[in-house]
Amino acid sequence: MTMNLLVAYIGIALMIGLAGVGSAFGVTIVGNAAIGAYKKNEGAFGSFIVLTALPGTQGLYGFAGYYMFQSMFNVLTPEITGIQAAAILGSGIALGVVGLLSAIRQGQVCANGVVAIGQGYDVTGKTLVLAVFPELYAIVALAATYLMGSAVAA
Asked: Quick check: 148 and 87 in contact, CB under 8 A?
């Protein structure tokens, strides 16, 4: 059963790692745009902060997925079955990849909003609305992780 636990923790590593890397890329994409836009519009720094922080949530979803398997479903034990390990690996791949791509694309949407704000347009709210769409897919992946975990819970 040690191999099952190893497979499960590979899934956890992918879940947290890929989603975290996506968040790191996403916030950096927006942060770079914010530095440039700040030179043109110093009064909009609050909007820049909000939009820069938004892609960071996907990394939190990766951690939330780990928390579910560890604490809510209590399957990360030496008695883990092969089916449970496969579910954790599958959900880790899914949540990790979706979180990675969602955060990067959300960062790009937010960066475009930051550039427009830097040029004097009042688009903070509109940018937030549009940035929610990539976020939705990370939330769906987290919900799927919950469903997989509840299906294989001991």
From this structure: yes
C-alpha to C-alpha distances, 128 to 8, 56, 64, 110, 139, nearest whole angstrom? 35, 14, 23, 8, 16
Chain centroid, CA 6 distance in Å: 23
Instruction: Label residue 133 left, alpha or beta by phi (over 0 means left) and psi (-120 to 50 means alpha).
Output: alpha
Q: How far apart are CA 145 and CA 75, in angstroms?
A: 13
CATH for 18: 1.20.120.610
Model pTM score: 0.94
Inter-CA distances, 66 with 16, 47, 109, Å: 7, 31, 28
Alpha-carbon distance values, 16 to 71, 124, 130, 139 (Å): 16, 29, 25, 14
Q: What type of residue is 5?
A: L
| Number of separate domains in the chain | 1
pLDDT digits (tens, 9 = 90+) for 16-29: 999 999 999 999 99
Identify the domain containing residue 79 by its residue range.
2-152
**Amino acid at the residue 43:** G
